[in-house]
Amino acid sequence: MGTGVMIGAGIFALTGQIAELAGPLFPLSFVAGALVTSLAAYSYIKMSNKWPSSGGIAMILQKAYGPGVVAASASLLMALSMVINESLVARTFATYALRPFGLETTGWLVSLAALALIVFAYLVNAAGNKSVSGFSVVMSAIKIGGIVLFAVAAIWASGFSSGAFSQTVSMTGAEALLASVAFSILAFKGFTTITNSGGELVDPHKNVGRTIMISIAVCIVVYLLVAIAVGSSLSIEDIAKARDYSLAAAARPALGELGFYFTVAIAIAATTSGVIASVFAVSRMLTMLTKMKMIPHSHFGMSGGIRSHMLVYTVVVAGTLAVLFDLSRIASLGAFFYLVMDMLIHWGVFRNLREEVGARASILLAALAADAVVLAAFTSVKLKSDPAIVAYAALGIATVFLAEWFYLSRKSEDPREITGQGAADE
């Protein structure tokens, strides 16, 4: 399931944007993303190995920083990055679904189709469908197999020396190549969901870490196949032009109409299952944060329990983002939120828990430095191309921290009330 969360929607949504930034060397961006993600996974693995039944992001942050503004704010940033990912995947679904009709550039139709998928995902989750998890497993196998089949067939048809790979490589775009790694990291960040499964694995003290590393290894193989397939079929200019549906665009010249429709079908299946699973995961995480008293809650007159309310809040925010922002801006916002949260994880483990969990300071600092370098390069590139999204991200992060400070400062000084430890223990 963890591999299925990582592979699929992200590769459909992000390949074009990565290639647009990195140029003919864009497959290397996925390799760099895998290396940075492997370093980042070290903190999560050490924490999950120590406390496998409490491997959620919020619990890791609470143990690293204690109850308070930092743990609550970073947890909320992670939840928001997951909601942002839902809107990213929903718009990807819309562009691929409309591509056969030539309507993928019609903004209001893309927004409408994306919103329709989010509403559908809400209805599936609200119905209490116990097969969501099993459905995700089956769809993971289908979409991974389909993506690999597309990639191998496209490479076979196009070879390695055509398309983007026949173009001149310029090292003047080194900063853009480095910035593209921020998007590549987004394609791998689904590994964090595996940390929530420690209580369900055999011998979780060892197998959580093994599961994460196996998933990252599988992903890099699939991502490289896809990158080579797209790069061998299309020039960088063509990839940039079709960045929101690059795999479908690459399928037509390489595999003809049948390959094109096959890729569209796989994309629709991957994005649909991805949004359904994501809404499920985000609503559970927000419910946990509410029970831990890390975020405020109001039912606004709605009936039902906290999780049913969180389903509504999740789809409202995701739907709003899907309507208001295009794919590039949604992905950029998610990258900023996730990298900041990830850096806080590494710093918290390094400063307060490395001896307790047996983590090496050098690896923690290397992960922190890698995130910082990628974030700096990404910010620099976005300040030149789209300064507004940098402002949106900075405003969003500042708002989260200020809101959490205001909320927690008004809570009772009773630690159990502030952290919801009683609910967490239950």
UniProtKB/TrEMBL annotation:
Membrane topology: Multi-pass membrane protein
Compartments (UniProt record): Cell membrane
Alphabetized UniProt keyword annotations: Cell membrane, Membrane, Transmembrane, Transmembrane helix
Keyword Translocase: no
Domain of life, source organism: Bacteria
One Gene Ontology CC term in the entry: plasma membrane
Claim: Cell membrane is one of the keywords in the record: yes
Gene Ontology MF term list: transmembrane transporter activity
Residues passing through the membrane, by range: 25-45, 65-85, 105-124, 136-157, 169-191, 212-236, 260-283, 304-324, 330-350, 362-383, 389-408
InterPro entries noted in UniProt: AA/rel_permease1, APC_superfamily
Record's protein name: Amino acid permease
Species of provenance: Erythrobacter longus
